[in-house]
Amino acid sequence: MISKNRKVAIVGTGLVGSSTAFSLITQGVCDEVVMIDINKEKALGEVMDLKHCIEYLNRNTKIKVGSYEECKDVDIIVITAGAPPRPGQTRLDTLDLSAKIAKSIVDSIMQSGFKGHFIVVSNPVDIIAHYVYKLSGLPKSHVIGTGTSVDSARLKNFIGDLFNVDPRSVQAYSMGEHGDSQMVPWSHVYVGGKPFSKVIKDNKDRAGDIDLDKLAMETAQAGWEVYNRKGTTYYAIAAATVGIIKAILNDENKIIPVSTLLDGEYGEYGVFSGVPVVLNSEGAKEVVEIEMTEEELKKFKKSNDTIREYISKLNNK
């Protein structure tokens, strides 16, 4: 019996798209990676470079330049193409151009008969994911934004550094917008199963006084700290994207904070927002509703209101 060929297409072969492809093939996640870009020579260059890696990897992943017409049998399409922010802009400032790019991509892909999953990376990711959902007509479980997956990883790194522990031993989520308004439900942060508030109290000599608002702000701004030094970010978001892909292709039922459509969860409706989600072969199978404090819920609602404002602006165009 021959098993189904697992295929992932990446639209946009810039640094994020190419890093995602590299992470896919070095981890041996799928059988085939299709690179799609309006600049076919750039896409071909990336494909050639990636193919030259195969000798030193653990499997011979097929890598090719593709087109939208070939997307019918693709399992997952990753959209990384978009408008990068210029100095002084926020992710939200790139909405108009990113939306135009997303529309041209999704319209072309859906004409192929595609019925798989979209993973949206392009910023502002929550609004663009919502737009892709509307354009595609796919079930809400099939359209996922990377959301606060990378922000949560950054938060866990910061906490791990404070107490000199592996960040994978930290459980923490950043939620809401992948942007300045995101929030952290500190009541659900744990280090090795121990509540963060108790860790701080018991380790004053190791970490000193910790300003939680400042730590949350540093988490939201971490991407800009990278951007200001090297001009963009790509390794972390590529790793997060591949983590989401693995959870879907391997039917892992893994909980990752991604952007998904809320339909009553946390009292929110009609908005894509970063929340912990159970991911498996169905895509975004289920939103995990953690019990936040009243103050945390207010911050989460405020962040969602920011997302809604921009969704409204996009809908009115």
UniProtKB/TrEMBL annotation:
Active site: H178 (proton acceptor)
Residue ranges of domain Lactate/malate dehydrogenase C-terminal in the record: 148-314
Main subcellular location of this protein, as a coarse class: cytoplasm
Record InterPro entries: L-lactate/malate_DH (IPR001557), L-lactate_DH (IPR011304), L-lactate_DH_AS (IPR018177), Lactate/malate_DH_C (IPR022383), Lactate/malate_DH_N (IPR001236), Lactate_DH/Glyco_Ohase_4_C (IPR015955), NAD(P)-bd_dom_sf (IPR036291)
Positions of substrate binding: R91, N123, P124, V125, D126, D151, S152, A153, R154, T233
GO cellular component terms listed in the entry, alphabetical order: cytoplasm
Known pathway: Fermentation; pyruvate fermentation to lactate; (S)-lactate from pyruvate: step 1/1
Domain Lactate/malate dehydrogenase N-terminal span(s) in chain numbering: 7-145
Pfam families according to UniProt: Ldh_1_C, Ldh_1_N
Compartmental location: Cytoplasm
Residues that bind NAD(+): 12-17, 37, 42, 68, 82-83, 104, 121-123, 146
Reactions catalysed, as given in the entry: (S)-lactate + NAD(+) = pyruvate + NADH + H(+)
Keywords: Cytoplasm, NAD, Oxidoreductase
Enzyme class, UniProt record, top EC level: oxidoreductase
UniProt-listed GO biological process terms: glycolytic process; lactate metabolic process
Family note: Belongs to the LDH/MDH superfamily. LDH family.
HAMAP family named among the record's database cross-references: Lactate_dehydrog (MF_00488)
Subunit structure and binding partners: Homotetramer.
Function: Catalyzes the conversion of lactate to pyruvate.
Protein's name in the database: L-lactate dehydrogenase
Organism: Clostridium sartagoforme AAU1
Gene this chain is encoded by: ldh
